[in-house]
Amino acid sequence: MKSPIAFRLDPDDVERLLRRKQFFSTPYGRGQWVSVRADIPLDWRVVGDLLRRSYRVVALQRMITALEATSRGR
């Protein structure tokens, strides 16, 4: 298997994603992380959304503020 892509998300989101075949529990993070298999075709819009949500979970508040300012400037 190719390297998976891991996301840190709210536990409810992790539980919901684990019901889907391509996702699996990441072996670290006490249920706050979920991974997607990267050796199958992926819906990159979904992956992008999960990456953005995951970033907001782990980023410092000043980083989120900077991200939002950049997004508004587009």
Which properties best describe this structure?
alpha+beta, 15% strand, 3 helices, globular, 3 strands
Structure description:
46% of the residues lie in helices and 15% in strands. It has helices at residues 11-17, 44-58, 61-72, and strands at residues 5-8, 23-25, 33-36. Strands 1-3-2 form a three-stranded antiparallel β-sheet. The mean pLDDT is 90.
Topology:
Layout: E1 5-8, H1 11-17, E2 23-25, E3 33-36, H2 44-58, H3 61-72
Antiparallel strand pairs: 1-3, 2-3
Describe, in short, the structure shown.
The chain contains 3 helices and 3 strands. The chain is of the alpha+beta class and 74 residues long.
**Number of E-type strands:** 3
Backbone CA Rg: 13 Å
Query: Uncertain spans, ≥5 residues at pLDDT below 50?
Result: none
The H/E string reads EHEEHH
Largest sheet: 3 strands, antiparallel
Helix content: 40-55%
